[in-house]
TrEMBL record, chains A, B:
One of its GO terms (biological process) is threonine biosynthetic process. GO terms for molecular function: homoserine dehydrogenase activity; NADP binding. Pfam families: ACT (PF01842), Homoserine_dh (PF00742), NAD_binding_3 (PF03447). L-homoserine binds at residue 192. The keyword Amino-acid biosynthesis applies. CDD domains: ACT_HSDH-Hom. NADPH binds at residue 107. The keyword NADP applies. This is Homoserine dehydrogenase. Pathway: Amino-acid biosynthesis; L-methionine biosynthesis via de novo pathway; L-homoserine from L-aspartate: step 3/3; Amino-acid biosynthesis; L-threonine biosynthesis; L-threonine from L-aspartate: step 3/5. The active site is at residue 207. Belongs to the homoserine dehydrogenase family. Its EC number is 1.1.1.3.
């Protein structure tokens, strides 16, 4: 096992360059740990001449990434092109068809096409590995697939998008509104120019659906993830949550049981006694609850060239060691097809925020709508009028079915008393 | 690969019974994940008739655990006997000599004899796995050995003893002294009747030395761990720390570099901004700092039958899958022999607590001793007299060499002004 493992690398953005830099910097140590050297032999990217801070002249260059699948000097293809379909998917399919193993950081592709690719890899005894696709450098796929493999996992949830957590932490620290902070995050490079995938929760949903399959042994079902992002959050929501002993975090939450497969990305109120309340900045964190191990937490950098490269190369080390099996911990054909759970019956406490006109009878109207829908109010805070004369009403409900909260808000829709969007959030248990 | 993996289990205490219960409860799922069933075939314990809540009549019984090594119906021996030497070590050696793989939860044995056992396992192409020996159910050995394998790890540290953390959390929550809480913890089963291994830091030191070897690729050096426990902590220390924005945690800390291998178990002041400050109760948590991945955190239940059984069976699943390599991530013969670092040159901020007589000139004497040793004082709090007339002085130093703090305390030793033990703690950086 002293033959090097030869890598063809598609995509030389920050992560691709990071992988090359990592192998250059830690190569000797990695060879000792992997039992053999891991060497890049061929690369492909859009622009051959761009300065990436690493020397790529020593590698074979190919213009068309799809050619890497059949490159004679490569055992494994690392796909860092991105995008759920298109050239990334074409390369992934061609790689496995050509008898090479595949490592990818592409959460969108795995969320949409992971099952197909896993079947192809398994039938050819090849590796398909995607640690870098979820939570950046945090080895959470490995933690679920192997570390917690002895457990029935009932629930997996966490902070899966660093951009959102960075913005929420900053809103919290500075008492400012979402849109202001977003602009700063974009300027600093913590948010994309088109931030919609991040802040509307799609990126977190990709990751959640991957985690759910590995954790529960269920078929990937990205289409069933209910998604709400963080655009609509106000500084006032964060302040009210803080007054109640909570922080707001965008969580991906999945559970599985006789009720079906439940998958949701939604802002939550997280109690300060919960470790996720203390995850600050662009950090990611995933909690898994197993029937023997209890609650496990994995936390670390969710993005960035160094952490993502670390996860990509960890996958390569597994392949170099010959230590890989079915991508989803069990054969793809053994994954259960589970129907999507109905969220309406779920019981939880909820936070409801209404912006209302400052006039007589408004509170009575709200209280009546809640009562008629069967929502029991635990606490209600009405703050003095905003500069525009509107008033913020923040309500925490007792535990009850989610459907009731939605019904109460539905009843209030169109009311003359409401002057802004109402919204509600889940409250995470201890 | 549908032949079952056959297990001989030595030791049927709570963890041993937990392993049987786990395999009974989750067996079908485990078989799907492992690619084949994992079945216990033979057991050994002190008392055959004791009620353990699991049926052991279906397994072969042997009186002498050493016989399991040569049991014809076992592929792997799980050693849960405990103790660094004696029957556990004899069984471990015999198991590997007989060509069977070994899984153990025995931190003391691995801390003292891990290198010898790893050599024996490697030369016979067998597995030696000990995930359950460190941090109970938390897959941190796997996280370092595989998940972070692409990184040079500069430092690994964490909360490695659940009993101490349970006691510290309770002291903190209730403002009570160590000895009182210890008695309660013992009554609740959170502390042993002889708690010394836990509260004097030996158990944490065993785990730290194992983590250090896996993280740094250095030979195990348990004898070089500097150990201080938590017996001497006062409720007042916790209150002073809280007033300064810290919580007190017993940390195992190891780092490696040109200065040598540094390993220490010691109570630390942990800033509230650090995730370890929010680890409450008997939970364990380990932080590893890699040169590409940054800071990773692994957290979960550090003890208990369910979590420990989860880690034992995770190791068995790896073996069933054929996914195991050298126990310390690289061959035992490639582990570097590193000299023990001199802690005196380390620079950090420190907390110093003195109990002094309430009389003129005491503060001047303390301040002079600090000055003479070159210790720069950042803050000093003197609280009103205790019921016995003594006064507590809590000092936080500016960053400086540890040697100076020790020298200052040495100067004060024997002074008529001191009426109780003085002590100092490290302050963990952000």
């Amino acid at each position: 096992m002293t033959e090097p493992l030869r890598i063809a690398l598609a995509g030389l953005g920050t992560v691709g360059a990071g992988v090359i830099r990592l192998l250059d910097t830690n190569g000797e140590l990695i060879a000792r740990r992997a039992g053999r050297p891991i060497v890049v032999t061929a690369v492909s990217a859009r622009d051959r001449t761009k300065d990436r801070g690493v020397d790529i002249a020593r590698f074979d260059w190919v213009d068309d990434p799809a050619e890497l699948a059949r490159h004679p000097k490569a055992d494994v293809v690392v796909e860092l092109v991105g995008g759920s379909d298109g050239p990334a998917l074409a390369l992934a399919r061609a790689t496995l068809a050509a008898g090479k193993s595949l490592v990818t950081a592409n959460k969108a592709m795995i969320a949409h096409h992971g099952l197909e690719l896993a079947r192809a890899a398994e039938s050819a005894n090849l590796a398909l590995k995607f640690e870098a696709a979820v939570a950046g450098g945090v080895p959470v796929i490995k933690g679920l697939r192997e570390g917690a493999a002895a457990n029935v996992i009932a629930r997996v949830y966490g902070i899966l998008n660093g951009t959102c957590n960075f913005i929420l932490s900053k809103m919290e620290a500075e008492g400012r509104d979402f849109s202001e902070i977003l602009g700063e995050a974009q300027a600093l490079g913590y948010a994309e120019a088109d931030p919609s995938f991040d802040i509307d929760g799609v990126d977190a949903a990709h990751k959640l659906s991957i985690l759910a399959s590995v954790a529960f042994g269920t078929q990937p079902a990205f289409g069933d993830v209910a998604i709400t992002g963080v655009r609509h959050l106000l500084a006032a929501d964060i302040a009210e949550a803080a007054a109640l002993g909570y922080r707001i975090r965008l969580l991906g939450v999945a559970d599985s049981g006789p009720h079906g497969l439940f998958q949701r990305v939604h802002p939550h109120l997280v109690p300060l006694s919960h470790p996720l309340a203390h995850v600050i900045g662009s950090t990611n964190a995933v909690v898994a609850e197993g029937n023997f191990v209890g609650r496990l937490l994995f936390q670390g950098a969710g993005a960035g060239d160094g952490p993502t490269a670390s996860a990509v190369v960890a996958d390569l080390i597994d392949i170099a060691r010959g230590e890989f099996g079915p991508p989803y911990a069990m054969p793809a054909d053994a994954l259960a097809a589970q129907h999507a759970a109905d969220s309406g019956e779920r019981r939880a406490r909820a936070y409801v925020r209404l912006t209302v006109a400052d006039k007589v009878g408004v509170l009575a109207e709200i209280a009546a709508a809640m009562r008629d829908a069967g929502v029991s109010i635990e606490s209600l805070i009405q703050r003095g009028a905003n500069p525009d004369g509107s008033v913020l009403v923040a309500i925490v409900t007792h535990e009850g079915p989610e459907r009731s909260v939605a019904q109460a808000l539905e009843k209030l829709r169109g009311s003359q008393s409401l002057v802004g969007e109402s919204m509600w959030m889940h409250i995470l248990g201890e």
